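Example 5.3 — Laccase
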Amino acid sequence: MVSVLTSSALFKTLLFLSLCSVWLLPDLALAKHAGITRHYKFNIKMQNVTRLCQTKSIVTVNGQIPGPRIIAREGDRLLIKVVNHVQYNVTIHWHGIRQLRSGWADGPAYVTQCPIQTGQSYVYNFTITGQRGTLFWHAHISWLRATLYGPIVILPKRHASYPFPQPFKEFPIVFGEWWKADTETIINQAMATGGAPNISDAFTINGLPGPSYNCSAKETFKLKVKPGKTYLLRLVNAALNDELFFRVANHTLTVVEADAVYVKPFKTDIVLITPGQTTNVLLKAKSKTPNAKFAMSARPYATGPATFDNTTAIGILEYKKSASASSSNNMNIPLLKAKLPQFNDSTYAMKFNQKIRSLATRKFPVKVPKKVDRRFFFTVGLGILPCSKNQTCQGPNNVRPAAGINNVSFVQPNTALLQAHFFNRSKGVYTTNFPTNPPFKFNYTGTPPKNIMLDSGTKLVSLNYNTSVELVMQDTSILGAESHPLHLHGFNFFVLAQGIGNFDPKRDPAKFNLVDPAERNTVGVPSGGWVAIRFLADNPGVWFMHCHLEVHTSWGLKMAWVVNDGKGPKQKLMPPPADLPKC
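Solution (predicted structure tokens):
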């Protein structure tokens, strides 16, 4: 007997089968369709995790550390529902995503949104426009990003290829930082007592510290490769407070991308990567299986006077053995160590950063603004602030360490800046009189002035739509010169030049590279030096700019740019979504 399906039943069967096939396909297979909408669900939940012989309860996404990898293609729309099941207020920032006209999805707490409170949820809704490469997501409130972070992989549009040889396989390598103690307690105590927060106990590679730490030999990330194959490593520095040197023993890396922008490929043994930066490198495996394993090591680049976590995270690069090779031999294979620069090797840091240049091809042009509408000179560095009247501080004369830009230490408002801007309710929330230059000139990298007290306030810069901005950021020696990785939300910028000492407005602009400058979202202001950048303010909204060393952000090394709407319909900020959290 032959059964006949009605057209309705046939349609339902086909629909069911097609849905099943979509459900069964892995992420990468799904990613083959350009311009689709992708749904993710982030459950913020506590999870017991053991590291360095100690178990503690940490805040996670879906119980994972690092959190889930987001995979999309250029042109895709992402809808990411974040549900908060923990006691803390939470926000998530999609670091490096342009968020064109979608500032409500950017994520910094009290800048573009009020936080997601316990038991509440929020859908981050944004489209990836004109970007492809490696970025990452992380919490953007207090110090929760210590454990709330994960990679974002943006594949090229369908049928578009990489401008370098297609790798055999790709792996995210996400650097993190681990404390035995609870990180929220650490920063809250430090802010209450006016002291510096305790340094971390370990660094991690994909959540694992590796064999250089106590009881951690089994908690080691292992990368298994085949001889002769080329691998793409997507490096992300999600550490809180430390720039990192990274090296794979006895292997050369080829840098092909920085901050999700293709660069002119260059070979290097060592990569320098600041918190907030991402770097894609090609690793070519040796042609024959060597009788060795190779350390993949990450250790701090630290320039400031403060103590730091001077330890090394180690992963292991292993070559896949043939089936005939015995497993007993595998146990005796030596581990070759990776030699890294001195922790304060600022010369190496400067040389490495100067090698990063945009492709500047017809397919990947450099759109650096040639004319400049507004120029800014920002000092970035440390200082002091008086402690509040009901607070007893550890510092002399009841002062505490602080940080600022142009002598202003940023005060976080208790409502979101973007809402205040959009609804014309800025009065009492923020002012737009952020100083264009420091309040007084001094020898920025020489002997500090006697008065190192900072001002404080919620001050912003207001820019008209499509304003081209040139910004020179100058480190200061107040409380010690130090490298500061500055991150700008909502934009990529062009790194025109950098130098040591004080910026010379007469001589140094002649060194500006307007041909193939690096295009980034995070740049290290050199220790005792300066960096010059340009960007086009073509994205309406309120955009945070801050040091990506979390301790300095906590101390006030942050500010924001208000970019006003343009005249055209596509030059205006979209209205807020209905589920935008309330303060």
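Remark. The two ends are 66 Å apart (CA to CA).
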